[in-house]
Amino acid sequence: MAGISPRLQSGLGLAAVLASMVLGAALRLEDPTASPVLPAEDSFSNTALVREHLRDGAIEPLNAGGTVYPPGMHAYVAAFWVYTGADLYELVRFLPTVFGVVGIAGLALVAWRWDARIAAAGAALALAVQPEVIFRSTMFAPTAFDLALVPFLLFGLIEVLHGRLAWAGLAAPIALVLTFAHPWFLTLLAPAGFLYAVFTALLPFRDRTVPALTAKGLAVTVAIVGVGSGLALNGCWGACGPGFRDVYPGGDRLAVFAPLAILVAILPAALLFGLRRGRPEPAPEPPRRPLPLAVRTLLSCALAALLAVITVPAVQQGMPPFVDLPRMIGWPVLVLAAFAFVALPFIASPAANAGAALALLCVPLVVYNPFDSAFWPHRTVAFLAIGLALLAGVGVAALWRGASAAFDSAGLRKTDTVKVGGRPVFAVLPVLLVLLSMGSIYAATPPVYEEGWYRLYEPCQFEGLQEVSRRAGPDPTAVIIAGDWRPKLVLAAITPNADRVWYDRTFFMTQKTQDDIVGGLLGEGRAVYVVVEENVRNVTGAQAMDFDREPWQPVGTWCPEPRHKSVRAFVAGGDDA
User: Fold this and answer.
1) Rounded CA gap, 444 and 6, in Å?
2) Residue pair 179/240 in contact by the 8 Å Cβ criterion
3) Contact of 456 with 488, CB cutoff 8 Å
C-alpha cells in the first residue's frame, strides 16, 4: 500500500477488519438462529454445569462417577450471567458467536501490530470464513472460549518476547484463565513458542525495525506458559480439571511431572532477574541484515520439503476420523497459508513466525493422531486454524507487495491508471483475493455433521422438555425421571437443581420397580414427572411403558407426526396431578 497516506491505509484496513467481523458474526449466527435447540450434547452439559456450580458452589461432575470438567469457562459465564441478569439458555445459545467475533478482532490485532494492515484484513477474513471455526464458534464449549482468548494471548506473548515486559500484564492473566478453562492448549503453546524462537533466530525479519528477542522476554514467556502447562499436567491438583487423564491413554501418569515443570519454568526468570538486579540493561541488538538470496531460497525449499514430508503420507494413508482439512478449512486458506509458510524466509515477521509455529505444531497432531486420542485430532483443528489464518493474512500481504513492486518495475506509475498518493490503487488484487477466500464459506463440512452440528431433538420435541421443566421447576421437591441420557441431559441444563433430574433405565423395565420408586416418592409428598420418548424403547427389556393409568396424568404429547419421534410426559402427585 505504498504511496497511500498512512491515515487512509489505517482507515481501509480497519474497514476491512470490521467487514470481516460482521461477516463472521453473520455466518456464526446462522446456526443458532436456525433452531432454538442447542447443538450437540456438549452445549447442554456445559449449561448444566454453569447452573450447578453456581447453585451449590461445588466443582463436581454432573453425574456421579464422572470426571471433573475444567471449571473455568463455567465460572466466567456464571459470573456474566449473574451480573447481567440475562437468560442463561439464550446466553449460551449466542455467546459462542460473540467469542468467535472477538477472536477475529484479536487475530487482526496480532497481524496489524506485527506484520501489516493488509495482513490483518486477510487474517481476519480467513478466520471469519473457515467452516470448522464457524462451527466451533456456535457451540457452547471451551474451544469457542479459546478462539476468543488465544489471539490476545499470542499478542501479549509476542510483545513480551520482544522486550515489552509490561505486556505480561495481559498475557499472564489470559494464560491463567485458560489454565482453568481449557488447560491443554497451554501444553500446545509451549512447543509452539520454541518453534517461534527457532524461526526468529534463523530468519531475519522483513521489517528491520522490529526489535529482537530479549533474554528477559524469553524468560518471562517461559514462566507464563510453563507454569500454566505444569498446572495442566495434573489439573491444578484437581482444581481445574482431570489433567491429561482423558486426553490420551496413560495421560494421568504425567501428573507426577507437574511440580518439576513449574519449577523449571520459573527458574530462568528468577535467575535472570536476580543476576541482573542493579546492573544496566544491555544495549539493544542492531538490526539483522537480510540473508543472502541463495540462502533464503534454500531455506524456502527446505520448508517446502518439510511441508511435503508431513502432509503427503497423511493424505496417502487417510486422515483420522472426522478430519478433512479441505472441508474444514477450505482450499483458499490452505493454499494461501502453504504459500506463506514456504515463503517465510522472504517475508518473516513476528505474525508470520507465530502462525508458522502454531500451524507446524498442530498439523502432525491433526493428520496423524500420535496420541491415539478419540478427539484430539479434530478438536485441534481449531488451533491449527488460528495459525493458518495468520499465515493466510501474511500471504495476502506478500502478494500485495509483490504486485505493487511488479507494477512499479513495469513503469505503470507513469500511465493513466487511477492513482492515490502518486501510485496506482491495486484494487483488482484485493478484490480477487477476497472473492477467492470467500470460497471457504461454501466448503462442505465433515460427514458427521453434514448440515451443521447435530442436535439431540427437533424443536417440537424440545418444546415438550421445556414444558416439563416449566412445570416442575417451581417445585424444588419435584423429581423428573427419564429413561435415556438425552432427555436427562437437556432437562438438567434447563431446570434448576439437576440433582432431581434422574436418568433411570430400570424405572421402565418392570412394573414393580416403577411402582416402588413412585410409591416412595409420593409417600414423601414429592411430585413425579416422567418423560417417555422413542429412545427408551431401545432399552432391552423396557416393558413398563404404559402410563395411561393411575396415578399418572398426561402432561402432553409433542411431535406426534410419523416423521418425528414423539415425546410424551406424565405426572403423578403435585398440583398438576
Assistant:
1) 39
2) yes
3) no
Q: What is the largest CA-CA distance in the chain?
A: 95
**pTM of this prediction?**
0.88
Q: What are the Cα distances from residue 184, in Å, to 232, 322, 380, 404, 532?
A: 6, 20, 10, 42, 39
pLDDT, mean over the chain: 84
What is the percentage of the chain residues whose pLDDT exceeds 70? 81
From the list 92, 76, 94, the residue with the least C-alpha distance to 32 is: 94
pLDDT for 202: 93
Pairing of strands 553-558, 501-503: unpaired
**What domains are there in the chain, each with its CATH number?**
6-277+297-449 (no CATH), 459-572 (3.40.630)
Query: What pLDDT is stored for residue 167 in this prediction?
Result: 96
Angle between helices 88-114 and 6-34 (to 10 degrees): 150
Rounded CA separation 87/44 (Å) = 14
- Average pLDDT (116-121) is 91
* pLDDT band with cut points at 50, 70 and 90 for residue 257: confident
Amino acid at 245: R
- Is 407 within 8 Å of 3 (Cβ atoms)? no
- Evaluate whether 525 touches 441 at the Cβ level (below 8 Å): no
pLDDT tens digits for range 511-551: 888 889 999 999 999 999 999 887 666 655 566 677 888 88
Distance CA 498, CA 56 (A): 11
Cis peptide before 551 (omega within 30 of 0): yes
Answer yes or no: are the C-beta atoms of 215 and 285 closer than 8 Å: no
Does pLDDT of 126 surpass 70? Answer: yes
